[in-house]
Amino acid sequence: MTEVIEKKKTIFSGIQPSGILTLGNYIGALRNWVKLQDDPAYNCIYCVVDLHALTVRQDPAALRRRCVETLALFMACGLDPEKNILYCQSHVPAHSELGWLLGCFTYMGELQRMTQFKDKASKHADNINAGLFTYPVLMAADILLYGTDLVPIGEDQRQHLELARDIAIRFNNLYGNVFTVPEAYIGKAGRRVMSLTEPTRKMSKSDEENSYIAILDKPEDIRRKLRRAVTDSDGVIRYDREGKPGVSNLLEILSAITGEEMEALAARFEGQGYGALKDAVADAVIQELSPVRSRYEEFLADKPYLEQIMQNNAGRAAKLALRTMSKVHKKLGLAPYKL
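Now predict its structure.
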């Protein structure tokens, strides 16, 4: 009897080099990525999406520095550049090329319906550029370039993934089976971490400083922010996302880090004040993030090593991208060439 060997599934995701990655990014994305790297079912590709950052005006020196810092933070969180492909988007020109080609198979009406474009345009009314409008096409290219099967996403990115699927299906209907049609990957620990000051909203680095915990925050800053976290006035610790969003957010953070169930945590703090809960959350977060901060500083101190990782991994990504681009060129009738 012949043994059937299943093909590994490809997972792709990216993070902009913003300079500030939050506890929400860590719990909702980075920590889950680390768990996937030892799963024999997956090949994982994680990208610093610096081209996407250009829809907002950037200081060139700062952006260049943040690209390296973001890669260092990926590794500090536990991502192994040997087990995963960790690279910068701009180092693989096929992202931009495929973005243009897919733009020719994307309709204006589809892009006009993107809610994130409307939101960003309202925040950057003085710079509503074409890149902001076509951002989802480049995002589709990022995903489709590597035959991606699964994309770890939050709810705010689901519309973009649906567009990538639509573009892939449209292209395949015209030219045959060229692109893998990606699916959303929802991890087991996919809870959203909410703002410390407005716990009905997702934690965001674009909000005021006390609303989020940065992965690289110092222990004293983590404790200060959590002590100021919004709760309510009734003094009862229980999990109730609708009725007690602030307390529930603290319980969710603690549960995500310790692995304890919400009900068990609520029982543990029964009869205690919110101060005890906040201190426990601060202790857990500090214990979780302090080693990350130490490893980050070690990686950042060795710039030649980081540059070598970026170059080697970009080469690995480019080889995979070339397979896809060769098929796309042939299907579209572009004149053949050899690199």
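Residues 1-5 have pLDDT under 50 and may be disordered.
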